[in-house]
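Lecture notes, structural biology module. Today: joint structure prediction for complexes of two components.
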Amino acid sequence: MAPRTNDPPIYRHRLPTRLWHWINALCLYVLFTSGLGIFNAHPRLYWGEYGANFDPAWLELGRFPGWLTLPSWYSLALSRHWHLLAAPIFIFALLLYMMTSLANGHFRRDIAFRREELRPAHIWQDIKDHARLRFPRGAAAMRYNVLQKGVYAKIIFLFLPVMILTGLAMSPGMDAAWPWLTQIWGGRQTARSVHFIAAWCLVALVAVHLLALLLAGPLGHIRAMITGWYRVPPARPDDTREKAGEKAA
Amino acid sequence: MSILITRRTLVTGAGLTAAGMLAGCDRLSRNESARELLFSAENFHRWAQRSLLARDALAREYRPDQISPFFRSNGTSNPNTEDYKALWRDGFAHWRLRIDGLVARPLSLSLAHLHALPHREQITRHDCVEGWSAIGKWRGVPLGLLLKGAGLSTRARYLVFHCADMGGPSGPYYESIDMVDAWHPQTILAFALNDRPLKVANGAPLRLRVERQLGYKQAKYLMRVEAVESLSQIYGGKGGYWEDVAGYDWYAGI
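The predicted structure, tokenised, for the full assembly:
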């Protein structure tokens, strides 16, 4: 069913991007599942500096089931060991990726929004295309579309940094070193709540990412994220935008 | 059709991969060398925090109106041993804190004696490893003052805090800190919480406050402070009750 084409594949993802993608995916997986294990030790969330059993909680849950947590049995110590092992790897990988992507132009070229992409008409068209599962082909498929950029930008520049800053804020040692860590959130318990909310936002964004991958042709994209090379599906004969893009390219 | 199968296979495959990864991680959690790697992350965090942290950097102190309405207790809420009950019955008049080990002059201090020494008062946040926090106002004697009085040996690398309570069936509660935290200005032996003598639930008559670390370091029901060169000969050898029993990090600043 995947249209065969004789066009040569294009080099879509550079090595730093691919490396970071998989390291980050593995880290987020370990961090999320071990994070739920840690949450299980006190499944209540508060706003402000303090919060314990006799203070009002804004959210109170039962324990997350073993098939979601790392390890699958309840062990706060082991969940913390997993979490604290993955966290520095995740942070330094993100920092390195950000510096590399600034230097090699990945952010500017691939992630930064172009002025014309931000026109409401263009965004609306992209939403309609996604809703019809009409994924870009031809020259249009060689770039990220505006919704896709939005998801990536939110993950890289908003949610991952928020996870780091709220995570560090929960450490009493880091608080003594950098008191602003809790102050920017308005308290350690607020930071813990934001950490929890942002984690689930990330899960939602990753779900969107995986769904789009599945609908847009998973094998070609996974191969591209492993080898770097992507075979662009040819433009639909009836699509003038894709044709136009092809001419422009 | 073929793509449908591919997609279905992929979804199932992804689900199985996720489940398989968790099972794999579970197996790793039990593997000896993987555990060593997992447990070694603590060393990185201690090194990183100690590098960022000025030796005397203070934990944040709060205003009186930020104090938690109720400071919950955790772990042992009453040691309930015959010895402890005897001490409690006469208001800890016969309780003594021993300071010994690698010191020039071992000390034995009564509560009245501690009350007569210079105090420090601090409103700080207590962060439990479980995730909750409570803010309380502590009053007590700076540990450094007592160490000077006892003439701490330069060979001493750790202080072990022996407690009156059983942590559980595996043995008595104890904790330990190194010299960076031992001499820290906020490290005090506290006898009062929120302007009242410590309640039994909060560690009467005396508890440790190490404000840059998590709650399980704040040993309650103190009986003895022992200066040692190494932790390996003390109980399970990992430097604390929960460290020995459950594998908690010895460095609890994380």
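Point to remember: Chain A touches chain B through 51 residues (CB under 8 Å).
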